[in-house]
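Example 9 (inverse folding). The structure is encoded as follows.
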């Protein structure tokens, strides 16, 4: 491949994928944007649309940081695929929904799923693009591997089968960012796919699947893992078409068939449980706390402390629902305040606002108990400070952005490994 790896970014949010692939002003997230990031990616087109709100704040922030050129702020389902530029790599963090197949088309486009489900928007692009991207890089919540509850793993099986039918091999890994030295305990599945005319696909064909998963694959190069000697991989074939898989895959199965790491090529799945093999430095919450003055609004008033303690505490009580039905309710306690000596818990979309909450982060400083600031939440996702600061965007909305975002450092590591694979494969081919 000559020149830059051209990238189309879907479900762009406030630009986490872009920061991981391009850096910020050419600098790397893993160095707090102090040192140069050596990669070869160029985002040539992006799309961000929030269907649940009239105001498109995430898209506004994206445009403020990266410019309006080649950025689309319309429903992805309405995008004219013919006007979407050809690209080498398609990336995006798409929501976890119900991926079941709704109908079969009678023409060459094959199968489509339920209207409004964003996976099928990706599928549409890959199906209709005359020049398909050679590489795909996606992110999702880890429960994708075990959903829905009645057919555990069906949704992921549909995605794998869809990509297989489109000519791709797929590798995946569930990654907890904190286990690789990053500041947040955020578990997400990362999916890489390679088109059958790519040299990476050909390399996978010529290697044992377990070797690719553990030693030679892109994810193994980016985020090293190991397996217990006693563990054996699960090996099976995705049989039938997408409709058959949608209707029959693992019906009634109490456990999912997919482990946290795996590979699929030519419909054949190899999957095994792996564990991190990281020996570097670990980040903790204390490292990221703002040293300067923090606004009083983030501190918890003494009169509100009982509400916070109740929200965070263990409960065993009678409750009444909207219909007047009484039931026993119980839940365990949360750590209060959050430990400063560990990586943080996962940021959620409801992190902002003053009201007491079971899941919001609270830390104790020399000045008292307080919530995390927008800058601290950005740092936990390895974004540049004040990346989401913009006129008209509230602190609560900034917290929402970070609850929806990904840990940029994970994208950066995988992006570097993928770039090296792409260029080395092409160098090998030229020899």
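The amino acid assigned to each position is listed next.
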């Amino acid at each position: 491949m000559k020149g830059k790896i051209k990238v189309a970014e879907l479900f762009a949010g406030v630009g986490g994928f872009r920061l991981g692939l391009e850096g910020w002003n050419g600098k790397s997230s893993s160095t707090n944007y102090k040192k140069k990031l050596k990669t070869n990616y160029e985002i040539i087109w992006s799309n961000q649309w929030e269907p649940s709100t009239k105001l498109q704040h995430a898209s506004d922030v994206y445009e403020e940081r990266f410019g309006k050129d080649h950025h689309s702020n319309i429903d992805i389902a309405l995008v004219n695929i013919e006007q979407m530029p050809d690209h080498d790599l398609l990336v995006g963090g798409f929501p976890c929904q119900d991926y079941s197949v709704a109908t079969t088309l009678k023409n060459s486009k094959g199968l489509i799923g339920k209207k409004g489900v964003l996976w099928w928007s990706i599928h549409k692009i890959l199906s209709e693009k005359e020049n398909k991207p050679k590489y795909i890089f996606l992110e999702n919540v880890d429960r994708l591997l075990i959903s829905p509850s009645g057919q555990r793993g069906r949704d992921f099986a549909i995605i794998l089968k869809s990509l297989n039918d489109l000519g791709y091999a797929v590798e995946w890994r569930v990654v907890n960012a904190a286990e690789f030295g990053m500041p947040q305990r955020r578990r997400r599945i990362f999916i890489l796919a390679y088109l059958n005319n790519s040299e990476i696909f050909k390399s996978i064909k010529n290697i044992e699947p377990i070797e690719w998963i553990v030693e030679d694959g892109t994810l193994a190069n980016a985020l090293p893992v190991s397996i217990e000697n006693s563990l054996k991989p699960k090996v099976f074939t995705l049989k039938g078409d997408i409709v058959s898989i949608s209707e029959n895959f693992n019906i009634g199965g109490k456990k999912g068939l997919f482990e946290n790491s795996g590979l699929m090529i030519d419909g054949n799945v190899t999957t095994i449980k792996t564990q991190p093999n990281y020996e570097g430095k670990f980040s903790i919450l204390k490292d990221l706390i703002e040293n300067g003055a923090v606004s009083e609004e983030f501190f918890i008033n003494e009169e509100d402390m009982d509400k916070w303690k109740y929200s965070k505490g263990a409960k065993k009580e009678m409750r009444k629902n909207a219909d007047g039905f009484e039931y026993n309710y119980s839940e365990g306690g949360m750590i209060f305040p959050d430990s400063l000596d560990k990586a943080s818990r996962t940021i959620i979309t409801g992190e902002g606002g003053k009201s007491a909450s079971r899941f919001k982060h609270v830390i104790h400083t020399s000045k008292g108990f307080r919530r995390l600031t927008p800058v601290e939440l950005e740092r936990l996702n390895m974004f540049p400070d004040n990346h989401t600061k913009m006129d008209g965007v509230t602190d609560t909305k900034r917290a929402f952005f970070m609850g929806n975002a990904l840990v940029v450092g994970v994208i950066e590591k995988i992006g570097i490994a993928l770039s090296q694979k792409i260029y080395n494969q092409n160098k090998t081919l030229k020899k």
